[in-house]
């Protein structure tokens, strides 16, 4: 499985990743869970760089879910601290690689220092055009769908839109993911076979790829493997194979 086998004219424009397995990785080594999160940063760097080098336009990383607030307070605090530190530490690398940072999720629940560091990095990288890295922070797909529904209902109530105007396109535009194409490929590490409330609407027709590699061990070659697997699939969108030929 090598980078050279990847067909650059058939790259997914958008890859979404559920970065999972940090806790188990640490446990295997007899360390605290936080050690796993700290070591996951290298994988984030590898994958972002790998995607940018290939020419993938968007990469969305699931970094913290709405449900993750229910973890022990100590782990939540450690994750938020790591987040601030990483965003600060990685801004120079994002600049070097021409990567623009963005975020989706419930900003109102993020700690102040986290939010200001995030906004600072988003502002600093806003003119980069090679790739966009979207962090899903305090995000869940159901949260996004509920909010979009409220927005649409409000607009209908105010007479700004007619019921007939509520269609797929309007829902697309109302979700926090509206700026980006829907991911063609979604990857989950660590062997878990579920979506865990990540981009539900947006992955309606995504190709799903699961690997048992734990997130801190994830490297560019694993990304290449996933992309090659994606390129071997036939995306039929309801049609028959014969129709596609
Ligand atoms: C993923 O690793 C990182 C976050 C959810 C923040 P986990 O912390 O879920 O690791 P496991 O699944 O317990 O091994
Ligand atoms: C999903 O991982 C969330 C992130 C990767 C940020 P979890 O490890 O929290 O998912 P579940 O709870 O095991 O499904
Ligand atoms: Mg997990």
Structure at a glance:
The protein has 245 residues and is of the alpha/beta class. 43% of the residues lie in helices and 15% in strands.
Q: How would you explain this protein's 3D organization?
A:
The chain has one domain (8-233): Decaprenyl diphosphate synthase-like (Undecaprenyl pyrophosphate synthetase, 3-Layer(aba) Sandwich), CATH 3.40.1180. Helix content is 43%, strand content 15%. It has eight helices and six strands. Strands 3-4-2-1-5-6 form a six-stranded parallel beta sheet, with helices on both faces. Helix 2 packs parallel to helix 3 (73-96) and helix 3 (73-96) runs parallel beside helix 4. The longest helix is centred in the middle third of the chain and has 24 residues, at 73-96. The mean pLDDT is 98. One 3-methylbut-3-enyl trihydrogen diphosphate binds next to helix 1.
- How many domains? The number is 1
| Arithmetic mean of pLDDT | 98
Structural class: alpha/beta
CA(first)-CA(last) distance: 27 Å
Unreliable spans: none
Query: Radius of gyration, rounded?
Result: 19 Å
- Across the major sheet, the strand order is 3-4-2-1-5-6
| Bound ions, cofactors and other small molecules, one mention each | 3-methylbut-3-enyl trihydrogen diphosphate, magnesium ion
CATH topology: Undecaprenyl pyrophosphate synthetase
> What is the share of helical residues?
40-55%
């Amino acid at each position: 499985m090598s980078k050279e086998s990847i067909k650059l004219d058939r790259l997914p424009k958008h890859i979404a990743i559920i970065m999972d397995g940090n806790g188990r990785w640490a446990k295997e080594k007899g360390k605290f869970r936080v050690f796993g999160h700290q070591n996951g940063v290298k994988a984030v760097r590898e994958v972002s760089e790998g995607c940018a080098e290939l020419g993938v336009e968007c990469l969305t990383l699931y970094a913290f879910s709405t449900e993750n607030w229910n973890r022990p307070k100590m782990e939540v605090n450690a994750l938020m601290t790591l987040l601030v530190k990483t965003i600060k530490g990685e801004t120079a690398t994002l600049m070097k690689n021409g990567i623009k940072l963005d975020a989706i999720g419930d900003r109102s629940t993020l700690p102040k220092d986290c939010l200001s560091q995030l906004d600072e990095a988003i502002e600093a990288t806003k003119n980069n055009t090679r790739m966009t890295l979207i962090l899903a922070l305090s995000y869940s797909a159901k949260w996004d769908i509920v909010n979009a529904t409220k927005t649409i209902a409000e607009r209908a109530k105010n007479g700004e839109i007619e019921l007939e105007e509520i269609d797929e396109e309007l829902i697309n535009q109302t979700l926090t993911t509206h700026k980006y194409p829907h991911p063609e490929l979604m990857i989950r590490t660590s062997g878990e076979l579920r979506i865990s409330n990540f981009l539900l609407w947006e992955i309606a027709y995504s190709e799903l790829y699961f690997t048992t590699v734990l997130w801190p061990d994830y490297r560019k070659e694993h990304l290449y493997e996933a992309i090659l697997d994606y390129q071997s699939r036939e995306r039929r969108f309801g049609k028959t194979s014969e129709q596609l030929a």
